[in-house]
Write a structure and sequence with these properties.
This protein has 16 helices and 8 strands. The chain is an alpha+beta fold. It folds into 2 domains: 227 residues, Orthogonal Bundle (MetI-like fold), CATH 1.10.3720; 123 residues, Immunoglobulin-like (Sandwich). Helix 2 packs antiparallel against helix 16 and helix 15 runs antiparallel to helix 16. The chain starts with a helix and ends with a helix. 28% of the residues are buried.
């Protein structure tokens, strides 16, 4: 009786299914124990800030009064925010497309050179530079002063090589010394000149050290007399170093102004033109009888070409995108190059055997086979440019910060950069999150598809 009761009270023997179930349960507990610290950090650093920002976006600047969707309405009424949305759209459309295209072209070309590894290393090096350092580098490179900005130094050099530059941008005439300034910046003689006359054109405002090399004293040329059929004269610096001399007259120590264009004008039309010699002398020969006006064209006094305003309102966004391309081109090239190395070579060789040229192979075989890789690179870059902040904030000068702003910089400026409106800033953060999520979903699905 006792043995029967003990037999009935003892648990039934565990089956194989029970053992497997317990093992799975134990494995889940162990896995959860290992994952829990990461989940805790994820919740504290990602989930909680996101949920807090969503809730904060429904309150006013002080965070004490519930305003519902007013921040979202204000966000799309503010012209600066609308400009940030427009600039972000430009970034999303232009930067990833250019980077993907450049990366593809460079990856294909690098395959055909012997020093491919060194070239890849050279292009990938900017990735090691922080956005802060890159922003400072390009802020200096884009400087409008050609003596500081390397880009404008190159542009000015090319411009001056083809069009030349004025030698006397600061020169001017003394008041009441026989020269009158025109509305276009030119100077002309007050009194008319006829053949056989000599004309002295005195100017000031040029430092002796800034005179062109080879400039000689103007006194010997000024002492020469004009023949009966010519107008003769001298353009000179009406300034004697150390003081002395007489205004309006060529003194012995005063220098001529070489390479200056001079014109003879009659009835409003230029009838003759010449360029001054090293001593500033000029002459108009074989002129007909009558009165002429001697004119110094405005081109003699044009300010030097200063280059392009890279960081002006019109070009600041393309300029910052250029800096972004410099940093990320190596990244796109390396990823696409890895996909290119995995392509089946038999398909490429078969196309060459069938008579396809390299352009046809690239367009009809290489690009379609690289489609998944190109999509991943493009979507990854789209996510990245939506969050761009450092380059815009550092490169764009204060006066044009508003013209270059994107959603990330606008969110920071509204919240902490002087706006002190965390409600509106949180709404901008939520908008940025909503824009990034679709690109992230596409990328995750692409990764899962490639794993299958």
């Amino acid at each position: 009786m006792t043995a029967t009761l003990l037999k009935e009270a003892s648990p039934p023997p565990a089956t194989m299914a029970d053992r497997r179930r317990r093992a799975r349960r134990r494995g889940r507990v162990i896995a959860l124990a290992f994952v829990f610290p990461a989940l805790l950090l994820l919740g504290a650093l990602v989930v909680y800030p996101v949920l807090f920002s969503v809730g904060r976006s429904f309150f006013d600047a002080s965070g004490t009064r519930f305003v519902g969707g007013d921040n979202y309405t204000e966000m799309f009424r503010d012209p600066v925010t609308l400009k940030a949305v427009r600039n972000t759209a430009i970034w999303v459309v232009v930067a990833p497309a250019l980077l993907t295209g450049l990366g593809l072209i460079l990856a294909v070309l690098v395959e055909k050179v012997r020093w491919a590894t060194a070239f890849k290393l050279l292009l990938f090096m900017p990735m090691a530079v922080s956005f802060l350092a890159a922003g400072i580098i390009f802020r200096l490179a884009y400087d409008e002063d050609p003596d500081k900005g390397v880009l404008n130094a190159a542009v000015v050099s090319v411009h001056d090589a083809f069009k030349g530059t004025s030698s006397y941008p600061t020169a001017r005439a003394r008041d009441g010394q026989g020269l009158t300034k025109g509305a276009d910046g030119s100077y002309r003689t007050t009194a008319a000149a006829s053949p056989g006359h000599t004309v002295d054109l005195g100017l000031v405002g040029v430092l002796p050290k800034d005179l062109p090399q080879g400039a000689r004293p103007a006194y010997p040329a000024a002492a020469q007399k004009a023949s009966a059929d010519e107008i003769r004269g001298v353009a000179y610096l009406d300034f004697t170093r150390g003081g002395g001399g007489q205004q309006g007259k060529v003194d012995r120590q005063e220098s001529g102004l070489p390479e200056m264009k001079v014109e003879a004008v009659r009835d409003g039309k230029t009838v003759a033109s010449t360029t001054t010699a090293d001593d500033g002398s000029f002459r108009f020969r074989s002129l007909g009888s009558g009165s002429y006006t001697v004119r110094l064209p405005a081109s003699n006094f044009a300010p030097p070409y200063q280059g392009v305003s890279w960081l002006g309102p019109a070009l600041v966004t393309p300029a910052i995108i250029g800096a972004y391309l410099w940093i990320w081109t190596g990244f796109a090239m390396v990823l696409i190059g890895a996909g290119l190395a995995a392509l089946p070579r038999d398909a490429l060789e078969a196309a060459r055997i069938d008579g396809a040229n390299e352009w046809q192979i690239f367009r009809r075989i290489t690009v379609p086979l690289l489609g998944p890789v190109l999509t991943v690179v493009f979507v990854t870059l789209v996510i990245n440019v939506m969050k761009v902040f450092d380059l815009v904030y550092i490169i764009a000068p204060g006066p044009v910060q508003e013209d270059a702003t994107v959603l990330a910089t606008q969110m920071w400026l509204v919240s902490f950069g002087g706006g002190n409106n965390q409600g509106l800033g949180s709404a901008l953060g939520v908008l940025l999150l909503l824009l990034v999520i679709p690109a992230m979903v596409i990328n995750v699905r692409r990764f899962r598809g490639s794993q299958r």
